[in-house]
């Protein structure tokens, strides 16, 4: 029987052919690209979310002069802290949750810094001057740390300094039953001011003591 002298035919394009292999490779590459693009998008979103946690404002837009009374009844202005860093927090002594937690966190953060933490004076400014007398503020801040300076003042002076720092203050609606025991809604942020009362940075109050200590270590002189 005579053998055919014709050359074998090349494989037909299809699942087993070169074209099919190329198409499969192309689909694999596209899937890999989509996965990579998705991963990049997730990372970008995460980075944006992280930046949103560390809220920064233009330094010139935050802070200003103030005249208040400290927890010993002595007059205090922003110049009283000249040459010293201050970490300011606005709150009130009847606050049930965020205020005591924040002051405890600030105390722990400064303790973590050791001697370098002494460059910073923590300052608590009451947004409830009607109830927060100097004596009450003193007892409150002393329960967290003797280093915390408590400030209060006349209602108009408190409103003025709160406005300087863009802190909103809204007493909740009072009734006969809640009179004298009302709560106050207020902005919660930590403000790091330098020795000339200029804003250095702001910290969200949900920052941990370790996070605050780490950032302060990088921001303070000698870091």
UniProtKB/TrEMBL annotation:
Residues 1-25 are annotated as: Disordered. One of its GO terms (molecular function) is metal ion binding. Gene3D superfamilies: Glutaredoxin (3.40.30.10). The chain crosses the membrane at residues 33-54. CDD domains: SCO (cd02968). The keyword Nucleus does not apply. The keyword Oxidoreductase does not apply. Keywords: Copper, Disulfide bond, Membrane, Metal-binding, Transmembrane, Transmembrane helix. This is SCO family protein. Belongs to the SCO1/2 family. Disulfide bonds join 95-99. It comes from the Bacteria. Cu cation binds at residues 95, 99, 186.
